[in-house]
Design goal:
Protein name: DUF3857 domain-containing protein
Strand content: 35-45%
Number of helices: 10
Keywords: Signal
Radius of gyration: 30 Å
Amino acid sequence: MKLKLLLALLVMNQMLYAQTIEPNLKWGKPTDAELKMTEYADDKDADAVVLYHKTDVYYNFVNGDFKVYYDVRTRLKVLKPDGKRVADKSINYVENENNRMRKEVITGLKAVAYNLENDKLVKTKMEQSMVHRERLDKNMKQLKFSVPQVKVGTVIEYEFCLESDIYYDIYSWYAQSDIPVLYTCYNLAIPEWLGFNIEETGGWPMEKKLDGGSLKLTAGNASEFVATKEYHFNANHLPALKQDGYVWCTENYGNKVTAELRGIYIPGAIQKNYTSTWADINVQLLEDNDFGGRLKNSSPLKAAIVAAGIPDIADKRERFAAVWKMLKSKVRWNGDYAFWGKSASKVLKEGTGTNADINFLLINMLHDANIDAVPVVLRTRDKGFLPITHASLKFLNTFVVAIHTDESRWDYFDASAEDGYLNTLPAILLVERARILDKDGQGDWVDLMAVANSKEASSIQVTLSADGVLDGTRRRLLNDEAAALFRKKWREAKDSMELIHQLQEKSGMEIKTYQIAGRNDFSSQAVETVGFTKQCDTTGDVIFLNPLVFAPLSESPFTAAERRLPIEFPFKQTESVNVVISLPEGYVVEDMPKPVVLKYDGMTVRIGTRVSDGILTTQFLFRIDKTFFPVETYQDVKAFLDKLAECCKSMVTIKKMA
């Protein structure tokens, strides 16, 4: 009895730690509750949780100029094996290769792991050997560190200070991440001489307060105090923003605070309204030797282009294809996206490079071939939206190429589109706001999402035997994004026979012949033709047949009862299927599904089946003309796709005549 009571008390004790955790605001002193907790009550599936996160942003006056400081302190709890990933942290900061006048440095980095071993607290500090720095591009560097001795149950604390000369550009503060947050706070103190517009966004409640303080400015032997505005934000029990295949950047939709410089107002010295515009960014980039300067150069391959007669090709699309084919034979994409590039000669020598490295070279080669081409700067979808209210070079992280193959329009291409074509870009680049850098520096906004589409059209012709076997062919015509994804799948496949085997398993057919047309072509199309047999369910003289033969959607991708994030499809999509089935002699259709028409805000489905003279025909059409569905529409989208999946499983009953 005593043993049972002891076990019961132990279980209750563990449940208490799992369910009643409270924010601990004392730094360097994790509580017993934090050390012993085994799960987070608000999200029992969480593999880790932010117990405490504090960011203090404040100004100082150093050597006659302002600096802004970001003091960060974070405490995390590892709850499951996958949660150990939070022990690895990276911090990006500004340090231009050539201009050190405006830079950022990271100081005071410390990290500690706390573990309970035999009910004794063991504290392990991070050594400097676990801290590494590397350059990302000409403007940015990255600091990485790993906290040691982290396992399930570990409490981690780390702190650092980011000191920035770029006082006029305050980093946005994000309250949420991919793990839940027990407590977070943000304190921002700004001298009244600097006018900022402060904006808070997000769907979860945060407490906020505004009060005043002061900052002492010292220049030589003189000093004075400047009033400050102090903003305070804090929140408790924020949910995780979990990444999935239908949202590109969760930070777009979480709670955050942004600050945009409105002006600098120093009494008796400066009275200047200062709001950077995208037109300013255009000029800055075009005047930069490492960006705009690169656009004026000829390529090292100019002689080869002329010798190959490429400038004489009349059709500009064919001329572009010839240039790209030559470049692709010299350089391959290394898988990275970037904004700044290495020299053309270095890229050619190494034979590999980022998309920016290759895009710069592509623009120069197109100019050598008498084709107008300019950069289109953007922020990839996984990094978040470009801000609408203010502009800054720091928000841009890559660019694609706009090409005048027709004087009345631009076509778009990127070096990372290894399997694509003109206007067929990788989905990560399909942003609604990208900016063309015209030679005159004016620039213009372009919606790259609007030029993208995925089209798939299948034609299935089969004969049904009396024993329920379908025998025939399926021909799939893939266009644009669908063709690019198809080529990519085959290019990355380690074993083509294994890929065909997977297709057999997924579709339930036996493949007799398999052919691909356009697999390695630089075009907008690819064609897959499959000769196959497939066994239908039978009972006596009755055959049960899916009139689509292969269900276009076997189940909805959305199974969760609720969703906290919107739905973002990669691009607009159209899929059509036309099926013609020759019925066995002496058999008739006894029962078949009614016509289906489903519509919901940018999505349409039409399915129709009919029979005539022993021929069963089915037509299927599914269109997605919108790529964004807000959170509040989730239940409707889920219901629509659930219904579509159900319709794709509908059966036809075929019976032998008496």
